[in-house]
Specification:
Length: about 450
């Protein structure tokens, strides 16, 4: 018998949803109200002073990591970089909500895995310690540099803190990383390797090299004087994404295991699929062939047809090529049904959270199904959709015009017809992930 997978916990930490009793609820409230956490961050990031892109959805300067709530000793906090702190805040919420720690034996802890998507982990600390090296010499570099920048720091620290003895590791598939983590945890539960998987993704972004690495490609929005309207997925005047940061974590659990301990079940992980464009280091394949195959593969595993998908939380980055290609991929995967499915792009409000965007999309899709309501996509000019090829004739960055002509929920939140939903995430170097959950 196939092992079904329950979702028994979920947690997030974001610039507009952190350090509250229920960050997930606050996040959804903000999304439904159309609240954007994007701002001009140059006043507090000196390196952006004269740069063309000065926007971010970053944690406020007064953000405090609540180590006491999680039970982490102050001495241990010194070893944690921002990415790990964000993962802990989201992960602790998910683990506490799931309640499995109090219900499993020491032996069963060997069947709990921790898999977390990471991108440029520890980059803030690496930058700071390099400056220190130049100022004071190599002997003055902080002894915690290694631990703060190791890619496996989040799953490693969390496994140690909670005493979880199953497999723990990080995965990096660029902006698809956290959905890859979900897929790997799902596979491990289905195969019987583990019974519970704590999985998701985290990212820290307030670093010069983060801004430079994407900015030098021209991927960042230059609307520094209009921050709230800068991230505009699927709009014809989109000019790049806004860098975001934060974390999302979920607890996946074999269904009968969850029922046996009378866990609250928030949803079910029905299907997933990952593949590769194998085409270009940054650009998606323009025929959207493997993006569409990822969506079809997820539907095939979930045993649902296109008509049963009530909503798609899209990757929607606000870049020239991604939005048109994803639109084409949805049309190829869903056929005529594509025009009837509400789609929303969370990045219009929280920016692009890179290695954590996938799991955030899954959590938001799940909550949308549970609440029966999809959030809107901000900043869409509904009177002038991106359907005129001539509009982009003399603009740079448009490799091929692909119309954005689906229903992106631009007019406001939308009621959903069923409880089965999809979330997509795509990453540089061709990574494609699609996940289907039900409430």
């Amino acid at each position: 018998m196939e092992r079904r997978i329950a979702i028994t916990g979920r947690g997030v930490t974001l610039p507009f949803a952190n350090n509250t009793p229920d960050n997930v609820k606050l996040m959804m409230d903000n999304l439904y109200q159309g609240v954007s956490s994007v701002e001009n961050v140059a006043p507090r990031l000196e390196f952006l002073k004269d740069y063309y892109s000065q926007l971010g959805s970053l944690f406020p300067e007064d953000y405090k990591f609540d180590a006491a709530k999680i039970g982490i000793h102050p001495k241990e906090v010194k070893r944690l970089g921002p990415s790990v702190k964000y993962a802990f805040e989201a992960g602790n919420d998910a683990i506490v909500q799931s309640g499995f720690l109090d219900k499993i034996t020491d032996e069963e802890r060997e069947r709990v895995g921790v898999i977390i998507g990471h991108g440029l982990c520890g980059i803030i600390e690496v930058e700071e310690q390099y400056r220190r090296l130049l100022r004071e010499g190599i002997s003055k570099v902080n002894l915690n540099l290694c631990l703060r920048s190791l890619p496996d720091s989040s799953p490693g620290f969390m496994s140690i803190h909670y005493g979880l003895h199953g497999p723990n590791f990080s995965v990096s598939t660029a902006c698809a990383s956290s959905d890859t983590a979900i897929r790997l945890a799902g596979n491990a539960i289905r195969s019987g390797e583990i019974d519970i998987g704590v999985c998701g993704g985290t990212v820290e972004s307030a670093a010069a090299m983060i801004y430079a690495s994407f900015g030098q490609m021209g991927a960042n929005s230059g609307r520094k004087d209009d921050p709230k309207r800068a991230s505009r997925p699927y709009d014809r005047d989109r000019d790049g994404f806004v860098i975001g940061e934060g974390a999302g974590m979920i607890v996946l659990e074999e269904m009968e295991h969850a029922k046996a301990r009378r866990a609250t079940i928030y949803g079910e992980l029905l299907g997933w699929c990952g593949n590769s464009d194998a085409n270009h280091v940054t650009a998606p394949r323009l025929d959207a062939e493997y993006i569409s195959r990822a969506m079809r593969g997820a539907m095939r595993m979930a045993r649902v047809n296109p008509e049963q998908i009530a909503y798609i939380n899209a990757h929607g980055t606000s870049t020239a090529n991604n939005d048109g290609v994803e639109t084409l991929g949805i049309k190829k995967a869903f056929g005529d049904i594509a025009y009837k499915i509400p789609i929303s792009a969370t990045k219009s409000m929280i920016g692009h959270t890179l290695s954590s965007c996938g799991v955030l999309g899954v959590i938001i899709a799940l909550e949308s199904a549970r609440l029966g309501l999809a959030h809107q996509t901000l900043n869409l000019d509904l009177d002038h959709p991106d359907t005129d090829e001539n509009y982009h004739k003399d603009q740079k960055g448009w490799e091929k015009f692909l119309p954005c002509d689906l229903d992106y929920t631009g007019e406001g939140p939308r009621k959903l017809a069923s409880k089965i939903v999809m979330a997509n995430a795509f990453g540089f170097l061709g990574h494609n992930e699609s996940v289907i959950v039900s409430a």
